[in-house]
């Protein structure tokens, strides 16, 4: 099976719904590893287990197409901080799920992606103080009240995508990432832990209700978003 090349400078973002029928979920189990099945069984909430199975099958499907392998044969290795990569080589990737959707970024260099379903935040001010720098807090209050929940969620996706890109995840500290949040235009990455250059922040356009950010190493990057169906894997 021939793989699908990822052009240099392109970040492919594949996204799909995780809301599937019982028979579809059951058929997707066949592509998961025994360890993934055990992880699914540890979920106490049935919906969470179903979403986990669908998300892992989606990831395997996308990566299988990229490297020319059956999804069930895709194998993973973990970095020092637990970030997965392809055991036998291939493109870099990262995945995120929220609100019954999954998004998977595939490109030729280090990448992180995060999605959040747009929703009201019960303790917005408390969350903002926990994750924002002083300049980000100042930027947030410049937005109208009705936009602050979505802007804070967008800021969260930017920060988490950045920390996932460098491989640390949330333990790297959300306030160690600083984002410029303009009232007009897309957010910009100002600082990423100890690095200030060499990374690009992208805003893939998926759905009006789904906020998405991707951070990739290198400049001059373009993002291509594609929706697909997990049950057709």
If you had to describe this structure to a student in words, what would you say it looks like?
This protein is an alpha+beta fold. It contains six helices and eleven strands. It has a four-stranded mixed sheet, covered by helices on one side. A three-stranded antiparallel sheet has the order 6-10-9, covered by helices on one side. Helix 2 packs antiparallel against helix 3. The longest helix has 22 residues. The protein is globular and about 50 Å long. The model has no long low-confidence stretch (mean pLDDT 92).
Core attributes:
globular; 233 residues; 4-stranded mixed beta sheet; 3-stranded antiparallel beta sheet
Q: Give the CA-based shape.
A: globular
**Which strands sit side by side, in order, in the main sheet?**
4-5-1-11
Q: Approximately how much helix is present in the residues?
A: 25-40%
- Beta-strand content: 25-35%
Which class do the helix and strand fractions yield? alpha+beta
Radius of gyration from the alpha-carbon trace, in angstroms: 18 Å
Q: N-to-C terminal Cα separation, in Å?
A: 15 Å
List the helices and strands in order.
Answer: EHHHEEEEEHHHEEEEE
**Average residue-wise pLDDT:** 92
Number of strands: 11
Q: Please, how many helices?
A: 6
Largest sheet: 4 strands, mixed
User: pLDDT below 50 for ≥5 consecutive residues: which ranges?
Assistant: none
